[in-house]
Amino acid sequence: MTTDRASAFIPQSGDIVFCRERQWVVIPPESPDTICLRPLSGNESEIFGIYQPLLHLDPIEAASFPLPDSNGLGQQDYQGAQLLVDAVRMSLRSGGGAFRSLGRLSVRPRPYQMVPLLMALRQETMRLLIADDVGVGKTIEAGLILREMLDRREIERVAVLCPPQLCDQWRRELAEKFHIDAVVVRSGTISKLERQIPNSDRHLFEYYRHLIVSLDYVKSDRRRATFLAHCPDCVVVDEAHTCANRSEKVQQRHQLLGQIAQKADRHLILLTATPHSGIERSFLSLIGLLKPEFEQLELENLPEAQRRQLAAHFIQRRRADVREWLGDTTPFPERIAQEADYTLSRDYRTLFEGVYDFARGLVNTGDNLTHAQRRGRYWSALAIIRCVMSSPAAAVATLQRQASRQETPEPEILLSEDPLFDEDLAAAYVDDPTEQERTSDLAPSAIVQRGKQSYSDRERRLLREFVKAAQGLQEKGDRKLKRAITLVGELLEDGRNPIVWCRYIATAKYVASALQKTFERKRNSNIRAIAIHGEQSEEERETRLAELVGYPQRILVATDCLSEGINLQEHFSSAIHYDLPWNPNRLEQREGRVDRYGQTAPQVRCILLFGKDNPVDGAVLEVLIRKAVAIHRTLGITVPVPMDSETVSEAVFKSLFERATDARQLSLFELGDGSSLDGVHQTWDRAVEREKRTRTRFAQRSIKPEEVERELVEVDRALGREADVERFVRIGFEKLQAALIKGKGGWKIPEVPECLQPAIEAGPKTITFYHPAPEGVEYVGRNHPLVERLAEYVFAQAFDQNSQAIVSRCQVIVTEAVTQPTVLMLLRLRHRLESRQGKLLMVEECLTVGFTGTPRNPQWLDSQRVQELLATAQPTGDLPLARQKTSIEGVLKRLADLTPFLEELAQERSQQLGEAHHRVRAITQEGKVQVTPILPMDIIGIYLLWTDN
Asked: What's the whole-number average pLDDT of the chain?
C-alpha cells in the first residue's frame, strides 16, 4: 500500500483514500458537507460518512490501489482467475452501461419489463400509465423505474398509494427486490410511526423518506391536505382503475390524484391491468392525470399525432405480446377453465323457491312507495337471494337479525335515510364492483335492513321461516359444499394447492370449517385449511397466510379481500369459485392471483362451481361468465362489460326472473331504469370490437426491441447473467471444499460453509439461480446474501497474500490454450458522471483484457478471446515456484509501460458510457452528461499464461 499524505485533503468521488487504518473508495454523498466512504471490496453495508467540519477527528489521506505481487503464487489454478473476475463483477452496484440501478436489484427483469423504464427515461417529468395484463409484472416495472431514478438522483422520495390490503406486499417487494426501504402508512401503523419521530413538530409524511400509503387512509379531506403538503416528488398509484371517475360525482380517490397531478414537475406512475372499464369517461379521467389535455381526446377518432403523444405515456400489452420477446421466453402458465356442477337437495330447493317468491314479491309490490323505498326493496331482494344461494351460513348471518321484531337500524343505514338511496353502498354488499372504492364481504344484512322498513308482518314471518330452514341445511343438506370438498380432494391428490373463493365471510368460515374436518383430521395429515376474510386486519391476514404456506399441502378459503393485486402464485396453483362472481373483472382478478408470472406449475386449473338447477348460477353463467371466459380464450385478455356493475346485476336479475321452473312461470321483472340482457350482450360485443381496435392503435411502438437489446447486452457484460452467478457459486463452493449437489429443481447445499454463515443460516437448503424458483427452492440472484458474502470473502482472500488462499491476484499457468506467453489483466474502472444540472454520480465496471508481446508493445486480444482463455486455460504443465516468481515479476515491474494504453482504454470506456447514457435520455432536456474516467484503474489481478513448449 502506498499513501500520499497531505494536509487539508478533500477527496473527490472515486478517489482511493486511507482512513481508520484501511483503504476506501469515496462515493458521492447525499449531503454536500459529508464525505462518504465505501470499502474497496464494494460492500455497501460498511459505508459510512464523515462530517467535513469534523475531519480533524477522522483524518483522510490520499492513497492508491495496491498492486498485485508475487507472494501469493502457488498451485496453478485456472478457475481462480475466473472466480476473482466474477467476485468483482458480483460486487458492482453502480455498474456501467445506460442504467445505474441494475446492479442493485435482487431480481433479473425480463427484457420486456425494461420498456416502461426506457419510456420513463425519455420524459422530462415521468407521467406513465402502465396497463400490462394481469400477472405480467407491473410491480417489477414500477420498481425498476423507482430504483433507476433514485440512483440517478432525479427523484428524492417515493410514495406508493395502493389499496390497504396491498401495502405490506409493496413494502416487501420494494425492500427485497429493489432495496428501497419504505414504511406503511395506514390506520393500524400511525401510532407506532409517530412515536419513532424524534422531533414531534414534523409530520410523518415529511419525516419518512419513502412511503406506502393506504388510499383509504389518505383520501379524506383532512389527511389529503396534509399528504399534499408533504407529498414526495414521485408517486406510484397501484390499482389505479379504482381511482377513475365514473360519473359526474367526483370520488375522493380521483380528487386526491387530481391534486397530486396538478404539480407539473411531480412524477406520476399509474398501474392497472384494467384501465378501460368499458366506460370511456372512466378511462379519460385516468389518462387526464398524465396530461390534462388527454381528458378531452376523442379516442375513436384520434389523429396520428395525438396517438403518438398518448402512446409515449401509455403502455398496454397482453401476455401473448411478451411471451416471446428478444429471444427470451417468459414461462407464463396455461389457464385451464373448467365447470363443475351440482344439484340442490330437496330441502335446499324448497328454501330457494320460497326465497325466490319472497324476493319477487318485494319488488312487484309497493306501488305506493317512494323511489328510494322501491330501490331499497329491490336491493334487499337481491341480497337475500344471493346470500341464500351462497351458503346456509350466509343466509343465517344475513336474515337472522332481520327476522326479529327489533326496529333499530344499523348506524351505516341511518346515513342512507334520504330520498336518494345509496346505490354504491348497496352494490358494495351485494354486487361485485371492481371499479369503485367500497366492497364488503360482510353479510348484506345492512341492505336487507334498509328494505325491511317497508316489510309487512307476513314478510317478517317468512324471514324467520327461511332462517330456520337454512339452519337445518348446514353441511348435511348442502350438496354444493359436498361437491366443493370432492373437487378440493381431487386437486390435492394432483399435487395442487387450491384457493376457494367465496363472496361472504360467513360462507368462507363455513367452507373452511368443513374442509378442516375433512382433511386436517385424517391420520398423519399434513394438510392445512384456513379462511382469510375482511373481518381480519391486514396484519392478521399476513400472519395467517404465512402460517398456511408453511404446510406442504394447503387450502386457502378466501373472500375477495384478497382478490385484488395480492400475489399468491408461489404457493397456490388452482382456484375454485365457490360463489360465482357477478362481474367478469372479479373473475379475472381472482384467477390472476395464481395465473401470473412466477407460477411454476405449467397449468393453472380454474373451476367454476355452479348449481345445475340453481337459477341464480344459471343466470350468471349465461349472462356473464361463459362469455367472459370465451373472450379471454380468444383475445388473451379480459374485456370489461361497458356498464356499471349495478346495471349489469339488474340485467342478471331480470334474466333470473325470466327463467321458468317446474313450479312456476316467472314474469319479467320490470324496474324501469335497467338494461335488458340483449342490451348487455350487444354493448359488450361492441366493447370487444373496440378493444381489438384500441390494442392495435396503441400497440407499443415508441421503444424498438433492438433499443432494449442493445442496452441489455451491455448490462449483461457489466454485471453478469444468471449463468454467471451459477458459475461463481459453483466454483466458490468447490474452492471451499463444500458440497453443492445438482438435483431436481436446483442445487442442494447439505451445509453452508462456515465462512459464509454470518450472512446465511446454517443447515441444508436447496437453491436455484433461475427465476421463477420452484416451491421450496430459494432463488439466488447476484444480490442474494449468499452471493454477496461469497464475493466479499473471495475478494478478501485475494488480498490476503497467503499461498493457502482460495484465489490469488497473480498466477502463472502453463497451458496448451496459448502458443505464446499471454498476459490477462483484471481491471476495475470508475467514472464520474456529471449532468448539466450538476448531479454527480459514480459508475464502476469490471474489465478483463489480455495481450501478447511486451508491456511496451502489447498486442491486445479481442474480448471474446479473453473470455475463452479465462474459461478454458486449464493447466497442462508446471513451472518451479522460483521460475513463476521471476516470470510474473517481469510483468509487474513493467506495468508502467502499459499506462498509456490503459488510459486510452479508460477514455474509450468513458466515451461509450456517455453515449449509452445519452441514448436513453436523448429526448429530454438533460443534455449530454460529462463522463470522466478516474485514473489510474484498479489493477486487481494479473495472470500469465505460459505455453507448455
From this structure: 85
